[in-house]
Specification:
alpha/beta, Nucleotidyltransferase, domain 5, 2 domains, six-stranded mixed sheet, 12 helices, 21% strand, hydrolase activity, MfnF, Hydantoinase_A, ATPase_NBD, COG1548 family protein
Length: 338
């Protein structure tokens, strides 16, 4: 049996996909410990290695963790993570680059093509199945909007900075993003009012109240380190308005959550429309949804009147692995493309 592992080294999670004879058998997400030093990656990778076992497998790696503030620069981050994976799984490990897979030496010397290239891998795999489309990967922290056409990604941006400029990367997600990053005003009791510029609540609170967030999608401490039930989520949103949860009923707090959820979807829609028009994607080109927040992609497809495809539908996988295949698209992609 041919076994390949795909790794996506993020600053918050390490994701590991196992592919057996071309079929995704399992996908695991391991949170990085909350440390302010690079060792957090070592610990997460060490835990992941326990799932790898002693199999004679090949390994492919992509990353975004080099952007973590535990590193002084992105180059330092790439070099550290390359060295870590070479030590962990051997010299034969391959790293995904915008120009194709490279070895450890090529990953360090060509670090600009390796840094935060995971989005490209996901779109490249989607492009092997669909002739054209728009990949929308909504994760805990960011949302990627990546067009692909004629069998390859056709994004205008190459780096995170360029993609932020092009509207292909929105540094907002469905879990960790502070509510203050979504809106500066919101309606309450029939009037618009300002929101606090404080991390009193996150989008995880919003989507818990709208009922859209998967229960296991938020492994992080809440903004106030309290519980993650509906009542505490409402209390955190109330604090954003300088109020207490008792100032309104749960219906009002749910209405506020839906308003904030629409604001994020509005931004995703605006950027998606611009990218679609720029690249002249046909009306039949689907929205491909990935990430724990791909309910945004489903809603976007409805707004745009386009077909929707789940990322897990694009690659052979075990039925029990489908959810995590879609959530951890880059790890799956590098395993399948290697």
């Amino acid at each position: 049996m041919a076994i390949r592992f795909g790794w996506d080294l993020g600053g918050v999670n390490v994701k590991l996909a196992r592919v057996e004879d071309g079929r995704v058998a399992s996908v695991t997400q391991i949170p990085c410990p909350a440390l302010t030093e690079p060792r957090k990656f070592d610990l997460a990778v060490e835990e992941a290695l326990g799932l790898v076992g002693d199999s004679n497998a090949s390994h492919a790696v992509t990353m975004t963790g080099e952007l973590s503030d535990v590193f002084a620069s992105r180059y330092e981050g790439v070099a550290y993570l390359v060295g870590l994976m070479r030590k962990a799984v051997g010299d034969e490990v391959r790293f995904y680059s915008l120009g194709g897979f490279v070895d450890a030496h090529g990953a360090v010397t060509g670090w600009q093509g390796v840094a935060s290239a995971n989005w490209h891998a996901s779109a490249a795999l989607a492009a092997t199945v669909e002739e054209s489309g728009l990949l929308v990967d909504a994760g805990t922290t960011t949302t990627d909007i990546i067009p692909f056409k004629e069998g390859r990604p056709c994004a205008a941006g190459r780096t995170d900075g360029d993609r932020l400029t092009e509207g292909e990367l929105i540094y907002r997600g469905v879990v960790r993003t502070p509510v203050m990053a979504i809106a500066s005003q919101a309606p309450f009791k029939g009037r618009m009012q300002g929101l606090a510029a404080e991390r009193f609540a996150t989008m995880a609170d919003v989507y818990r109240l709208t009922g859209e967030l998967p229960e296991d999608a938020d492994p992080f401490p809440s903004a106030d380190n309290r519980a993650k039930d509906l009542e505490e989520s409402a209390a955190r949103l109330a604090r954003m308005l300088g109020r207490d949860a008792e100032d309104a009923d749960i219906v009002a707090w749910r209405a506020l959550a839906h308003f904030l959820a629409r604001r994020l979807l509005d931004q995703v829609e605006a950027d998606a429309r611009a990218v679609i028009e720029r690249d002249d994607l046909s009306l039949e080109a689907p929205i491909v949804g990935a990430g724990c927040g791909r309910f945004l992609a489903v809603a976007l497809a409805g707004r745009l009147g386009r077909p929707y495809r789940d990322f897990a539908d694009l690659t052979p996988c075990a039925e029990e692995a489908q959810e995590m295949v879609s959530r951890c698209a880059p790890a799956v992609a590098v395993a399948q493309l290697a």
